[in-house]
Amino acid sequence: MKAADKAKHRTDMISSALRSAILERVLMPGMKLPEDSLGERFGVSRTLIRQSLERLAAEGLVELRRNKGAMVAKPSLEEARDLFELRTQIEDLVISRVIKNMSPELLAELEAHLAKEVEAENASEPISIRLATEFHILLAKLAGSPVLLRYVEEIGYRCGLTLSLYARPHSTDCGIQEHRQIIEALSKGDEDAARKLMRHHLTAVADRALFTTEEGGPLLYLDALEPYAKKVRDGGA
Amino acid sequence: MKAADKAKHRTDMISSALRSAILERVLMPGMKLPEDSLGERFGVSRTLIRQSLERLAAEGLVELRRNKGAMVAKPSLEEARDLFELRTQIEDLVISRVIKNMSPELLAELEAHLAKEVEAENASEPISIRLATEFHILLAKLAGSPVLLRYVEEIGYRCGLTLSLYARPHSTDCGIQEHRQIIEALSKGDEDAARKLMRHHLTAVADRALFTTEEGGPLLYLDALEPYAKKVRDGGA
DNA sequence: GTATAAAGGATTGCATGCAATTTCACCAGA
DNA sequence: TCTGGTGAAATTGCATGCAATCCTTTATAC
Fold first, then answer.
1. Domain that holds residue A126
2. Dihedral of CA B147/B151/B157/B158: which sign?
3. Which of B17, B58, B71, B235 is at 20 to 30 A from A95, Cα to Cα?
4. B58-77 residues near strand C (Cβ < 7 Å)
5. Does A148 touch chain B if contact means CB atoms closer than 8 Å?
C-alpha cells in the first residue's frame, strides 16, 4: 500500500472549501445551498455535496431542513452568547493542557502562526478573521487531545460565522496584539495570566459583536464560490 | 403543514438503533459493519446506512476506513484516559449551569430518571450502563446549552463504549448511589459538593475500568442486531 | 382587489447500477 | 510448510434516475 493513506478525499476538500467560503463571508448566513448547483460548480454529483453539507451541518455551520435543502446557518443572538460563553470555558481547558505540554517547538509553531497573522494584517478582513480563528485551533492542537481539538474547531468556526453576522468591521484588529500576549504568558508557563488574557480576549471579541446588523433575505450568489470550487476541481487542497 | 414536523426519520432511527446496539454491547468493538448486510436487515438501501454510519463515525462510535468499510470503534487505552479526563472537566461546566437553572421541575425530572435506574438495577448489565450514561445526558439537557449537550452526549457515548471494552462486570453498581448524592447536592444548590461528587463519581468509574481485557479479533455476528432492526423496520423509535 | 386553488417547475429523498478497490482463496515455487 | 502471487468474490465510491415534497406562479371565484 502507498505510504500516503492520509490522502484527503473529495468530500473533505469540498467541506473545507465550503467552510472557508462561509468563514470568509463569501457565503453569507441565510444563503441557500442547493445540491445541484453546488455539484455542478465543484464538478461532482449531488452525492458528495450532500455528504459535505451534512458534515457542515453537524458542525453547525449549515442548517439542514428536511425537504427544504441547506442554507448557511444564521445563529440567533442567544445562541451566539451561549457559544461565546462555552468558548471561554472550553479554551480554559486548552490553556491548562498546553501549559503542561509546553516546549520550544510548540512555542515556535505559535510564533510562526502569529507571523502569518501579522503578515495578513492588511489583507482583506475575512481572511484575518479566519487566521484569528486558526490561532485558537492551533493552540488546541498543541493541547494534545483530539476530542478537545474537535470541539474547539467547531466552536471556533461557529463563532467566526457569528462574527460575520453580528460584528462590525475591524473587530479583529487588536486580536493580534492579544494573541501575542497570550503566547508570551504561555512561554513563561504562567497559567493564570494566560487564562485571564484568553478570557479577556474572547469576551472582548464577543462584546465588540453586540450590534444587530440586520441583513437582507436569503440570496443566492453562488458565483462568488467559483474560486473555491476551482481549487477543488483542479485537485488542490 | 402538519404540526409534527419533528418526525424523526429513517436515518435518525437507524443511527439510534445502531448506537443503542453498540452501547449495549450487542455490537462489540472491532465488529465489521458492512453496508449491504445492515441495509438488508434494516430494510433500506445502502444510502441510508451509509449516512448513519457516517454520523456515528462523527460521534466516534464507529471507525470508517477508506475503501475498507466501517467497524465499531475500538478506542485505545490512551484515548480512553483522555476521554475520561475531558469528561470530568466538561461535566464541571454542566454542574455549574444546572445549578443556575435549578428548579423543582428539573429536580423532578432528575428523580424520575433515578427511579428508572433503580428499577433497572437488576436488569441486564448493558442496559444499566446505558441508563447511567443517560443520567449524565439528562443533566446536560437541563444545563440549557445545546452545544454543551451535544458534547456531553458524544463523550458519554464514547465512554460507554470504552467501558464495554475495558471495564469488568458490575462496574456500575454503586453508580446509582452516587447519582442520588449528586441530585441531593444539586437540590441544595451546593455547587462545590456537586462538583466534587461528580468528579469522584467519574474518576471512580474510570478507575474501575483500568484492566486490559484484551479481546478477540473482529467478528461478525450481525444476527444479534435483529431486534434493533426489527423496531426500525416496523417504524418504532 | 383580495384570496384561495391548482398546476407547473424546482429540489430533495432514496434506491440502484457500475467502476474501482480491497479481500480472500487458491495455487505455484522454494 | 511457508512465501508470494494471481484471479474471483465481496465491498465500497460515486453518479444517476425516479418518486415525493415543496415552492411559485397563474388562474378563478368572490
1. 77-207
2. positive
3. B58
4. 66-68
5. yes
